[in-house]
Amino acid sequence: MEKTGKELKKIGLVCPSYPFFVKNEKEEEDLKKYFFQFGYTPVLAPNIGERERYLGGTDERRAEGVNAFFKDPSVRFILAMRGGYGSMRILDKIDYDAVRQNPKLFMGFSDTTALQLALFAKAGLPSLTGWTFREKETPILKKSLNDCLLKDEDCFKNLKSVSSCKKTAEGTLVGGCLTLVNALIGTPYLPDMEGKILLLEDVEEEPYAIDRMLTHLRLAGVFDKVSGIVFGKFYKCVSSHKVHGTVQEVLDSFFKKVSFPVVQNLPYGHMKKRKILPLGTKAVLDAENGTLRIQTIKF
Hints:
The protein has 299 residues and is an alpha/beta fold.
């Protein structure tokens, strides 16, 4: 993020999943200073600092912050403070009419995949994926965010084909964490996958669990609709039993012989060296040359 003028714009900080706490006045002041450097005044959602078991407050309170910031014209950017679990629980409490009428930048990662898919499915809102505030910002993340905000498109190279199909696929990039994509099957909050390029990654799942979720996608007809698939990193997805094999073997067993392009090694996932990506925008996947071009978000 970079300053685009003298006046500070507002960034709405939401907590749709796990709790996030600002422990004292010093932490609140540090929070303000952090966003001031980018030209934003942070505004905290009302549920920040609340806890309901493993959630950042009740479902109603977590949805309240998201809805309020979409309705507030002074808020230009909405950022999820952390992932974890819980955004799926509020999907039927989001005011999608307000989102459609007030489109603005939204960024999250991991568990917020569910919310981001729903915002696109129900309101056509593209979003940014790859970072929540709880994680330490790195130079790679900062540069990739600036690229998303300032460039017309971004191009990722050196992707490796999983499928024998070397076609070029065009479509809207959707997806995120495989667990959440899988969980939305059968709900109205998963976008229509017809012609989409599906982005997938996950963390700390055993290969058999990855297999189960991919099988669910296959049986639900998702692979019959997509124009291509791009895999990020399956971080720490290692079997506790060597005889069970690897995630790579799982991917090969599903996609070696499909008739659409499938690539891996996109620098996206739960590892430190990842990049922020736009979702819900047009993308071109060239499996022959190992590239993925993604349009950035323009409102």
